[in-house]
Write a structure and sequence with these properties.
This protein is of the alpha/beta class and 378 residues long. Helices cover 35% and strands 26% of the residues. It has three domains: 5-47, no CATH class; 61-291, Rossmann fold, CATH 3.40.50; 295-376, Arc Repressor Mutant, subunit A (Orthogonal Bundle), CATH 1.10.10.10. The chain has twelve helices and 18 strands.
Length: 378
């Protein structure tokens, strides 16, 4: 039976707004309402059915870190990290790489497809001064003219708009643009009033998936991590982590707080090697050296069999309250447990140790859909 919008509004006395075909959001409660008509089912069978005879085409890579993929056409990625870790500096460097086609901070390179050269950059957090400074930084870093910048990059500050209005503004601008190739949302958290609301988080996720699917673009979101465990904040963080092809972590170096370390927190492509950057006197991010924490105090590299590192005890404690973790959550959990014992271990070393844990059959790692799940081996 076809959906009678007028009848629905009268009976429920609540306003609804379409997210995409067959999916509406209740504007008062922000709950998702699926409403599927026979016409929609017919369209699904015509457009969404997958056959083994379909032509297999890899999506174009829009942005890479050295030779490793960050962003593809029709994809989602997240830049995560604690507050003031310089996430926005990394994002502006990525935008500069795309606009110029040059290698930026020694690692970032990219370009958009013909006919899709425009980037929309939505900022929900910063002041007008900071955003103008951001725009000038992109011009300096990319070397492109103000004219090219005006044509291909639209920066919008949405801080003054109500939370519910921001998402609708972004949606209308994206859906009405014919030449858009990438969207940056610097402050995804500010698209919801409650970061732990499943309904609001699903709504934002559905909007992003709609943009990616219907406009054939890539969406980059920036979101903070928790202070205690470095996981993405709230239900909105978990929802977007599950949808993303690449989740990047930006943290300040423990050795030199002027240096930020960029790591692959989670990814569906080959993981890139960690790299670092710092900000020069002109406010421009430049490539920096990663100094190992132990090397900075003249100590030997950490050995797996060093008795100072109680692997068995750490694994037991990790599974006291949880029976399973995603791979990225387990990496972070193990690192934080060593940290509580005043044993600082880099994430790259932690990942190597976890591989040893699996080899020793202390844990088992299995694939669940597109994610890796870690459980204790019993």
């Amino acid at each position: 039976m076809a959906f009678d919008r007028a009848k629905f509004k009268k009976e429920d006395r609540k306003r609804i707004a379409p997210i995409k075909k067959g999916l509406y959001v209740e504007e008062n409660t922000l709950k998702i309402i699926p409403l599927v008509s026979d016409d929609i089912l017919t369209e699904v069978m015509e457009k969404d059915r997958v056959r083994p005879t379909d032509k297999l085409e890899r999506p174009p890579v829009l942005l890479s870190i050295k030779d490793k993929t960050w962003a593809t056409n029709e994809g989602i990625s997240i830049v995560s990290g604690p507050a003031k870790a310089r996430k926005t500096f990394l994002i502006t460097a990525a935008v500069s790489a795309i606009l110029s086609g040059k290698l930026i901070i020694g690692n970032l390179q990219g370009s958009l497809l013909e006919g899709q050269k425009k980037i929309y950059y939505f900022d929900t957090e910063q002041s007008s001064y900071s955003i103008i400074e951001l725009a000038k930084r992109i011009v300096k870093l990319s070397g492109v003219s103000n004219t090219v910048m005006e044509e291909n990059l639209i920066i919008l500050k949405l801080k003054r708009h109500p939370t519910k209005t921001r998402l609708i503004i972004i949606d209308k601008l994206i859906m009405e643009s014919d030449d858009i190739g990438m969207v940056i949302i610097d402050g995804v958290r500010d698209l919801v009033t409650d970061i732990n609301s499943p309904d609001q988080s699903t709504m934002v996720s559905n909007y992003i998936e709609k943009w990616v699917d219907e406009k054939k673009i890539h969406v980059v979101g920036a979101i903070h991590t928790n202070k205690n465990d470095n996981n993405l904040r709230g239900h909105i963080g978990t929802e977007l982590l599950n949808k993303s092809e690449t989740v990047i972590s930006v943290t300040k170096s423990n050795v030199n707080k002027d240096v930020s370390i960029v790591s692959c927190k989670e990814g569906r492509h080959r993981e890139f090697d960690d790299f670092a950057f710092k900000i020069n006197n002109d406010g421009i991010p430049i490539e920096a050296e990663i100094i190992p924490a132990k090397a900075s105090v003249g100590r030997k590299p950490i050995e797996f069999h060093d008795p100072s590192y109680p692997h068995s005890e750490i694994i037991t404690e990790a599974f006291e309250l949880h029976t399973k973790y995603s791979k990225s959550e387990f990496d972070t959990k193990i690192q934080s447990l060593y940290s509580t014992r005043n044993l600082e271990v880099g994430i790259s070393t932690i990942r190597k140790w976890i591989s040893r844990y699996e080899d020793n059959r202390w844990i088992k790692i299995s694939k669940s859909g597109k994610s890796l799940i870690v459980e204790k081996n019993t």
